[in-house]
Amino acid sequence: MKKIAVLFTCFNRCNTTKRAVQEIDNEKGVKIDFFVIDDKSTDNTLQELKKLNKKNLHILQTKGNYYYSKSMNYGMSYLLNLKKQYDYLLMVNDDVDFYHGFLEKMIDFQILHNCITIGACEDEKGKLSYGGILFHSKFSSDFERIGPEKKHILCNTFNGNCVLIPYKWFKIVGAMDNHYVHSFGDFDYGLEYSRKKYKLLVYNEFVGKCNRNSKANTWEDKKLSFKKRLFLLNSPKGLPFHQSFYYYKKNFNILVAFKCSLSPYIRIFLRK
Length: 272
Prior knowledge:
A seven-stranded mixed β-sheet has the order 3-2-1-4-12-6-13. The radius of gyration is 18 Å and the shape is globular. A hairpin with a 5-residue loop joins strand 7 and strand 8. Helix 1 runs parallel beside helix 2 (45-51) and helix 8 runs antiparallel to helix 9 (254-269). 40% of the residues are buried. The chain is of the alpha/beta class. It has helices at 14-25, 45-51, 67-82, 102-113, 167-173, 185-195, 226-233, 241-251, 254-269, and strands at residues 2-10, 30-38, 57-61, 88-92, 97-98, 116-118, 121-122, 128-130, 132-135, 143-146, 157-158, 162-166, 200-202, 208-209.
């Protein structure tokens, strides 16, 4: 029986978080330990998770305002220091509505292909929402999102909604880069595995349902004022310049870094 460490972050969506734990814990043929990173939720998430009374549920709480990437770094660092042995690390987002049997199928796929297995998600219309990421060039940040129909295409990285990583590879690569607060963390993390020549493949079925995040009330929302969009761009959940520049310089080159880091500001200025 394979031993799985399931890692995800949560903040103020108690029912969604509880559902994710219950769905994944219903998977058969595996032994699961949950490591849930709560970013100081104020909606009783912590108390409600404890009420589930699951001995395999470990809740770690941040100091607050860690957001996604910093929380994942916190959780991964904890696992690496734990010195406990697992067969796989499963990174998930708690807003995925997982399909029954997804985990056993992903494990079989991983064993067959000796790869990091990316679980793609579909939206409510049955279209690809999150999955593998394939960049077209080292000199461009343009990418194609890869779904189940392209399962044999090697990806460069992934959306972190559902990713199964052999634990021995996780121990080699280590934790997510602590430079990031929210954005870029999962893309950067997948690229670390690519640099070390590990294969990244998308599993050949959707593993769950998850709609893409809305652009409303984000820096991309053209209905908002110039000042508001600029504020949101530089907020932790936007694309702060220093984190953006760091990501593109690290993974592409300095020309791409300048172009991609400045592009959102130009779009806001041009009202696009």
